[in-house]
Automatic annotation (TrEMBL):
Keywords on record: Signal
InterPro entries according to UniProt: ConA-like_dom_sf (IPR013320)
Key word Signal present: yes
Range of residues in the leader sequence: 1-22
Protein name as it appears in the record: Alginate lyase 2 domain-containing protein
Top-level taxon of the source organism: Bacteria
Amino acid sequence: MRKITFFTVCLMLVQLVGLAQAPSLIKKKISDYPLVDGSKLPTEAGWQLRLGDEQKEGKIEITANKELFIKAASGEAYTVQVGKSTETVFSPTTDYTIEFKTKVPLNNGRGLDITFRDGKNFAKLVCVTHNRVILNGEKEALAHLNGKEYHVYRIAVERDKAKAHLYIDGTYKTSFDLLAKANSAWLSFGKGNTKADTEIVMQYFTYDLTGAYAPL
C-alpha cells in the first residue's frame, strides 16, 4: 500500500485546486489558419510596424526553416500591430482567442511582448521570456518554463467577464483579470523594451474572434 505523507496530501490538494480553476470552454484548433508565419514578413501580411519615440528599428528575417526571427539589441525595437482599420483586422465584439508558437533564445529584459485591447478591456503587457511568462509590473509569474525551447501559447479571453486564460502546450496554467476601459481595439507582438538585447523565433501567430477556446 502506498504510504500517504503530508507532502503527498498537499500535492494532491494543489493539483485539485488547479483543476478546479480551469475554465469550462469549448475546445477548438485555430493553428490551421495562421495570420503570421514564416511564409512572409508581418508587414507583408497586413500588420503595421509600430515604433515608439526614439526607437531604432530592430531586424526581422525569415529563416531557412520558415520561421520569423526578430533580433533587436539595446536601443532597438520591433513591434507589429493590427487594429480596427488595418489590412488584417482585429476588432473583437465577443470572446476571442490568441495563439502563437515561439521561443526566446536570448533576452535580458521582457522578451516577447504581447499587447491586446478589445474595445472594452485591456491587458497589461504579457511577456514571454527565456524562463517564464509574466504580466509586466507584477511580482508573481504566470508560468515558469524553458522559454528557449518552442512552446505553444494560447490566451483565451472572455470579453464580458474581463478575464483571460493562459494555456501552454495545451495545458491550462492560470487566469488573469483584464482592466476595464473603453478604447480602440488593437493587438501587437514583438520586442518593445529597448533596454535589452532580445532574440525571438516564431513559427506562427494567429487569433480567432469568434470565441474563447481551450486547446483541442
